[in-house]
Write a structure and sequence with these properties.
By secondary structure, this protein is α/β, with parallel strands linked by helices. It contains 16 helices and 25 strands. α1 runs antiparallel to α2 and α7 packs across α9.
């Protein structure tokens, strides 16, 4: 007969994280650069009280358990309060990426069935354009006080601070099943419409525990942590949860992400640890090097979203900043691997050690991974064999939101990446089976670009591939075959994209060719195209 353990049963709830931070790290600071232009300071104790007031306010508005509440916001203290107030009351915090094209934002808000959407003032023009296409949103909430509310708006607005001021904060966080939905993030729609990953309280708390571990992000109460990665980008890689969990000081940079603004905040607040995509560090490095500056406290950064160039890793090391390569996906909450050295690697020659650090790293506890060939047969971990990367674990999706067809293959999630794994478990992405383009850590759909180009009357066939860019890592290059007898210039074709896709999706250049290589089944051979244009120099580079 099985012998059961005799331990307390307590659900793993997101509200427990902010309660813990308020009770045991109550005086620790949260510092935010606000859209109003000033620097705001308060504590975890203040944050938890205001999150409780927000939960009360949402209840007064009629928000029900399981209802989705959207955000269009930068990294700031009010956004943090929404993370905890919404999920803590049993509703679902749905962070929307404001960098997407307005039509995609409207699709996402409607697909999620958001009841309310909270937004920073920066995004008022976006909200005014999107709101008429979102008839089921009951209210749009400007995340500011009455003094800074817009004098005029095409959309009826609620005031965030007025909602909170109407409540007393005398609110107990409810207890419920840890498997209830807590938050919702959508992919960037690289193949068709964006798809939603619906996280649970349990998956989020477990992810927070694991990501804070020493061989993952390595967060501790002695750190001052500034997530540059946006809170609308897969929940800022989980840092809004893992930082309060360990009680570290949290610095939120708001909309000013240029090198000079970040450096000022890093030095002023004595930041020790940060996280962001390579583009961010390129801008910060350029500012530091151009002005012959150094970092007084900044010692570690996690780089993800796209691979960090080796030269960037070396440049940060020269400034005494350790680079931790990481990899994950929206479908993985998002963290899957972190490239932290093993004990035996520390005495290696620099060149060998650097090769290891350039890999995407080893799984963090809770994630399992494997690589398989085209028939699904598992491949060896020898650092040479490459195959499709599959993962599984308690914070990896089982299916997409409002889609009953599971993407899993024998219980494993196919990532769409192609990778190698060495004998020590270090994984390295070698290619992407999807032809998505990652520009500054944000994804661009090659299919959407091709569909727009194909609609031009002079275009016979178009393929969109990635081309190297020194700042953005990758930018789209459009390869075009013209119709017989038709003429179209590069400038005309690029102008054709205006208003049809987000401006930053528009290709940087057009290459005209006589033919695009095809497979036996008529599909474009983009691998051959990428090889053909591997040394192509973009005019924007």
């Amino acid at each position: 007969m099985a012998l059961m353990g005799q331990m307390m049963s307590a659900p793993l709830l997101i509200s427990s994280i902010i309660k813990h931070a308020a009770r045991y790290y109550g005086s620790t600071e949260i510092v935010s650069r606000r859209t109003e232009g000033d620097l705001h300071r308060y504590t975890y104790r203040d944050c938890e009280l205001r999150a409780r007031k927000l939960a009360q306010a949402l209840g007064a508005l009629g928000v029900q358990q399981g209802e989705r509440v959207g955000t269009l916001a930068w990294n700031g203290y009010r956004h943090l309060e929404i993370y905890y107030g919404v999920s803590g009351m049993g509703a679902v915090c749905h962070t929307v990426n404001p960098r997407l094209f307005p039509e995609q934002i409207a699709y996402i808000v409607n697909h999620a069935e958001d009841g309310y959407v909270f937004f920073d003032l920066t995004f008022l023009p976006l909200v005014e354009g999107v709101a008429p296409h979102c008839p089921n949103v009951r209210g749009w909430v400007a995340m500011t006080d009455r003094a800074h509310m817009p004098a005029e708006s095409k959309v009826p607005l609620l005031c965030y601070e007025e909602l909170l001021d109407a409540q007393d904060g005398n609110y107990e966080w409810p207890q419920f099943d840890e498997n209830l939905a807590s938050s919702l993030c959508y992919t960037s729609g690289t193949t068709g419409n964006p798809k939603g990953a619906l996280y649970s309280h349990r998956s989020t708390v477990l992810h927070s525990y694991a990501s804070a571990m020493p061989d993952a992000l390595g967060c501790s109460a002695s750190d001052v942590i500034l997530p540059v990665v946006p809170m609308f980008h897969v929940n800022a890689w989980g840092l809004p949860y893992s930082v309060p969990l360990v009680g570290a000081k949290l610095v939120l940079p708001g909309p000013k992400l240029d090198g000079a603004s970040l450096y000022e905040l890093f030095e002023q607040e004595k930041v020790t640890f940060s996280a962001g995509v390579p583009t961010v560090w390129l801008g910060l490095l350029q500012h530091v090097q151009a002005n012959q500056l150094k970092f007084s406290t900044f010692r570690r950064t996690v780089i993800g979203g796209s691979a960090a160039p080796p030269a960037m890793i070396r440049a940060l090391e020269a400034l005494d900043v350790e680079v931790i390569h990481a990899w994950g996906m929206t479908e993985m909450s998002p963290l899957g691997t972190a490239s932290k050295l093993l004990a035996k690697h520390h005495d290696l020659p620099d060149a060998e050690r650097h090769k290891i650090q350039e890999k995407q790293g080893r799984v963090i506890y809770g994630v399992d991974m494997k690589i398989v060939d085209g028939e699904g047969k598992e491949l060896p971990w020898d650092g040479k064999a490459f195959g499709d990367l599959l993962v599984r674990g308690p914070w990896i999706i089982d299916r997409y939101f409002r889609n009953d067809v599971s993407p899993l293959v024998d219980g494993w999630f196919p990532t769409g990446d192609v990778a190698t794994i060495d004998a020590d478990g270090f994984m390295q992405i070698t290619d992407r089976s999807k032809d998505v383009i990652k520009s500054g850590g944000e994804w661009i759909s090659s299919i959407d670009i091709e569909n727009v180009a194909a609609a031009h009357p002079a275009v016979h066939m178009a393929a969109c591939i990635s081309a190297y860019h020194p700042k953005w890592d990758e930018r789209p290059l459009l390869v075009v075959v013209k119709k017989p007898g038709a003429e179209v210039s590069r400038e005309e074709l690029l102008q054709f994209f205006e208003g049809k896709v987000a401006k930053w999706w528009i290709p940087d250049d057009v290459a005209f060719v006589t033919e695009i290589p095809l497979t036996a089944t008529g599909k474009m051979q983009k691998l051959r195209l990428r090889e053909q244009f591997k040394d192509y120099k973009l005019p924007t580079a």
